Amino acid sequence: MGIRSVERAMNVLHELNLQPINTIAQLHARTRLPKPTLVRILKTLEEAGYVENDTRQGGYQVTALVTSLSSGFHKGPMVVEAGRAWAIALTRKHKWPVAIALPDYDGMIVRFSTVPDSPISPFHSTVNRRLGMLTRALGLAYIAFLDREAFDLTMGILRKSQDPEDALSHHPTEADRLMTQIREAGYATRSSLVEPRNSNTIAVPIIAKGGNVLATIGLTYFKSAFSSDQQAIDRFSPLLKSAASAISEDLERLSSKLAIEESGLRPNHVQDLRTSDC
Amino acid sequence: MGIRSVERAMNVLHELNLQPINTIAQLHARTRLPKPTLVRILKTLEEAGYVENDTRQGGYQVTALVTSLSSGFHKGPMVVEAGRAWAIALTRKHKWPVAIALPDYDGMIVRFSTVPDSPISPFHSTVNRRLGMLTRALGLAYIAFLDREAFDLTMGILRKSQDPEDALSHHPTEADRLMTQIREAGYATRSSLVEPRNSNTIAVPIIAKGGNVLATIGLTYFKSAFSSDQQAIDRFSPLLKSAASAISEDLERLSSKLAIEESGLRPNHVQDLRTSDC
DNA sequence: CCAGGGCGTTCCGCCCGCCGAAACGGACGG
DNA sequence: CCGTCCGTTTCGGCGGGCGGAACGCCCTGG
């Protein structure tokens, strides 16, 4: 019941963010919009400066200006802010995309992803995507490092779920065995029962000074790029662990130097003055 | 010549990002759109999940989902990434908005701003806004810390400018005196000749290990909140200096652990595989 | 208690601007 | 040289966006 053209344009802009470069044909396939409609929407976004049509690369991509469509939102937890730079640095160095996820009730939500930074990434950016707790690397790396009480609580919630992604919650001994294994190894990988099969993710917990798991950070790679999963694990799990502990240290420094309360603050209503910072 | 409703909606979304909370009346005043049109656009964005209508606070605001409209773009230089967390932490603690700016030829461009995080901020967010080099705190804190060669080069460019913001470049002795003063103090403030008059900004350079100025970070406050500018300077300049050096250290750690090249990487064309990271 | 103003929101008929099938033209590749 | 697959342009028809007017609400002040 909204404005159709606006809904469509927002979808297109959203889709444009999922891949570094987008052809009309791809967008047509994904959005099911007629090509002339796509061209018209893209032209509009281009005139507004949010999109550019790079003919050399043969496709459309978002420009730096899109950041101004979300510059008003950074109430994210500090762990994501502190982790961003490390995620980006990891991707620049090792090419594979890195994601940071936060717990959300009975699942995890991806809050940052370097997919567009990754020149070899065939993956979609998954910011704001929800992931299962018991099948995804980013979920397992979280739940396995919860303390007993929080773990039992979450498992209790998951047992009520009918989602096949949460099936493991109905097999306590199997689950416990997996959790122990993850805790000992210090990292988790995605369940092999779950799509996509041609890639894998290695994830580790980001643990605060006090011992609480705050978030998880994970790296995704194409299986075909390595002779075995073990090879990728040997290579990346130490890097992720050291990044995770560095993030935790950064958080410590940020809060000790400035004494932040971790909970986001509520913005208050302010009057409209037409001035600017500089 | 684009789709009018889409152009309007993008403008509205952009405006929504400039303030933590937006009433219809404010948006009407800023966009000059009829109120029914605004309501229709906002309803559309709300249905799509990008905006919420917080009736308690009596206004519209962007939601976390807007990040997915720019998640495809993160080519930001590492110094901005490293500085984000510090800017946010400063604002959470001291309430005033903090901005990070990068040099761009003969001016500075704001690349990050915590205006929407600041509950007392009556300022507009200025991400992507261009600032003069010789009047703005964020510009002065940069140019004053350039080495001789780069300084002369930039001043040469500025002398060709007719912009009143660059007028100081035509008065070398005055300029030199100001530069010396800034270098000694370690911070810069906005020229009193320039709008807005009811606020001021204190900015310091972010200097890399090698001695190069990479960027500047500045805090803006309402003059009426302090008994004198000196009081604000005494309070904030040490904080900014310590944040700037912490950012520089973070950069060092990021690059030494991972050996990053500072220049952004160019994303390559990749084939369309329908998979995802997790 | 009511008048007045400002607010966000709803209504509804007019009309214009969006829509998309069809056509175009250029780039491959066989 | 023709077939195919692109991205892009054209253009007429019509449906959906538009905004003035009106509504209901909450203030404030008389």
Please count the beta strands of chain A (DSSP E, at least 2 residues each): 10
- According to CATH, the homologous superfamily of the largest domain in chain A is GAF domain
**Neighbour order of strands in the largest sheet of chain A:** 6-4-3-9-8-7
Sheet with most strands of chain A: 6 strands, antiparallel
And the CATH topology of the largest domain in chain A?
Answer: Beta-Lactamase
Low-confidence stretches of chain A: 260-278
Instruction: Give the N-terminus to C-terminus distance of chain A in angstroms.
Output: 41 Å
**Approximately how much helix is present in the residues of chain A?**
40-55%
Strand portion of chain A, in percent? 15-25%
Radius of gyration of chain A, in Å, reads 21 Å
CATH architecture of the largest domain in chain A: 2-Layer Sandwich
Assembly state: homodimer
The most extensive interface, with participating residues per chain, is: A-B, 111 and 113 residues
Structural class of the helices, strands and pairings of chain A?
alpha+beta
> How does the overall form of chain A come out from the CA principal axes?
globular
How many separate domains make up the residues of chain A? 2
Number of helices of chain A: 8
Query: SSE string of chain A, helix = H, strand = E?
Result: HHHEEHEEEEHHHEEEHE
Organism (chains A, B): Pseudorhizobium halotolerans
Keywords (chains A, B): DNA-binding, Transcription, Transcription regulation
Pfam families (chains A, B): HTH_IclR, IclR_C
Protein name (chains A, B): Transcriptional regulator
Structure overview:
Chain A has 8 helices and 10 strands. By secondary structure, the first copy, chain A, is an alpha+beta fold. Chain A has 2 domains: 4-62, Winged helix-like DNA-binding domain superfamily/Winged helix DNA-binding domain (Arc Repressor Mutant, subunit A, Orthogonal Bundle); 76-258, Beta-Lactamase, CATH 3.30.450. In chain A, strands 6-4-3-9-8-7 form a 6-stranded antiparallel sheet, sandwiched between helices. Chain A has a two-stranded antiparallel ribbon with strand order 1-2. In chain A, a hairpin with a 4-residue loop joins strand 1 (51-54) and strand 2 (59-62). In chain A, helix 1 (4-16) crosses helix 3 (35-48). Mean pLDDT of chain A is 89; it is low at 260-278. The first copy, chain A, binds a DNA duplex (30 and 30 nucleotides) through residues 3-5, 23-25, 34-37, 39-40, 58. Chains A, B: Keywords: DNA-binding, Transcription, Transcription regulation.
